[in-house]
Specification:
The protein is built from eleven helices and no strands. Helix 3 packs across helix 9. The longest helix has about 45 residues. The chain is globular.
Length: about 325
Amino acid sequence: MSGLLALLDDVTAIAKVAAASIDDIAASTAKAGAKAAGIVIDDAAVTPKYVTGLAPARELPIIGRIAMGSLKNKLLILLPAVLLLQAFAPWIITPLLMFGGAYLCFEGAEKVLHAIRPQDHGEVAKDMSVGDPATLEAQRVRGAIKTDFILSAEIMVLSLSVIDADSIVMRGITLAVVGAVITAAVYGTVALLVKIDDVGLHMTLSRSGAMQAVGRGLVHAMPKVFTLLTVVGTAAMCWVGGNIIIHGLDVLGWPAIYDWIHHIAEGAAHAIPVASGVVAWAVTAGIDGILGLLLGMLLVPVVLHGVKPIFGKKQAVH
């Protein structure tokens, strides 16, 4: 998690340099990028599964296609949409954020439930079956871009909520920079992660014993890294989703939960003054995550037994 956050900090710094002639854009980009960090972590954690079961030679092209789809989502659809909403219906921004936050809580809770109660082996085998590679690749890319759309919408709306620029042009430029930078950070990181095992395999062919040992270490370590990413991504979903919901309730005039968490975090920070800032953040994030997970658990049966069957019937009729 800290590595991905550090990467986001580096990317934000690059965005600042690129926008050096427009200080407002640089400052807003840094602020928005930091605010969206949790969703960025989740995006990076989710994406590698879409290249599972496909030929290694197709991994980078697939990630490239998903990245281009993500960029189109952000710049061609979401950017004008969120600017229009802010201009003509700003009251809807907070409810939209909360809706997206609830979706993140649902996704996080569903992953936790799958970890506790694994899916039927037949369903897993069917899902992992390669079948026709071209068809599978097209399905994976479509699925990834659909998932990315939700996460990108959260990133763009959340980023817009912290941009201070008065001009719609400045807000648009800042959002475009945020979208491009985060897309490059996420999918650049994913591309690196999915190819590290290939690098390790190549190193095992070296004549150097040390290189071979490092290569074997990389090959054996990557499954654990992806498992860790899954855990981090799930935690980030619950944490970010819970935080968005709680903050949204505060904005809409129901501050009780927000104030309660703030009071507990302040008490913990006073108890450990040496690292008060870190303690306050950790307590806040922990409670946000727990409440987000609980909300997600409540939403899982509603979505699985209420929403999905309805939409499934509509698609079948169509």
